[in-house]
Amino acid sequence: ENTLLSNYNFGKGVNLGTFRLTDSQGISATINLASGKYNTLGDVMNAINSADSSDGKPLNITASINADGNGLLLTDNANGALKMTVADVTGTAAADLQIAGTAATDTIDGALAKTVTLTPQDTLSTVAQKINALNFGLRANVINDGSATSPYRLNLTAVNSGYEGRVTFDA
Q1: Which one-letter DSSP state was computed for residue 21?
Q2: pLDDT per residue as tens digits for the range 75-129
């Protein structure tokens, strides 16, 4: 909760723009990080947790820190027929917080960790495509190192340099 927005997003910070949250009953609220004093993830969580729609209806979305402690977790408590959505209106605040998109279930996990699921049918090219589809601080491509046997390699490059570009692999 005390993580500074200026240090978040792999050290790139969070753009202090505006984003809209819509719960599963269709109630929407807009969070404007450019107005007010938003310095930490806790400030953003408080804004989301106290958000009301323009006609005064409470937004039925709860913001918290996810179970791994590495990002925001949005939980839709509206029990509606729609899917919770988060979209940037101005700037890239929701994308920087890793919460932009449509919920598959009743949560959006803005974890600063991603999972790539591999199958026996995957090739180096499909693995690179899966990694690149995450759009998550890491770029993958297939290179030919010129070896006589098995010359193709998966090349991974961090988008950011230094400490902010660190990547951890876990099997």
Answers
A1: E
A2: 999 999 999 999 999 999 999 999 999 998 999 998 877 788 999 999 999 999 9
β-partners of residue 76 are: 61
What residues does 155 pair with on adjacent strands? 141
Q: To which H or E segment does residue 32 belong?
A: strand 28-32
* Terminal C-alpha separation, the chain: 28
Residues 6+ apart with CB under 8 A from 161: none
- Site of tokens 């500074």: 4
pLDDT in tens, 125-165: 999 999 988 777 788 999 999 999 999 999 998 877 776 67
pTM of the entire predicted model: 0.73
Using the structure block, give the residue that is written with the tokens 């995450």.
Answer: 134
Task: Look up tokens 């190192």; give the residue.
Answer: 145
Using the structure block, give the residue that is written with the tokens 């010359």. Answer: 151
Q: Work out the number of other CB atoms within 10 angstroms of the CB of residue 129.
A: 13
* Residues paired with 53 in a beta bridge: none
Give residues with Cβ within 8 angstroms of 101, minimum separation 6. Answer: 85, 86, 108
Q: Which two tokens stand for residue 19?
A: 């984003």
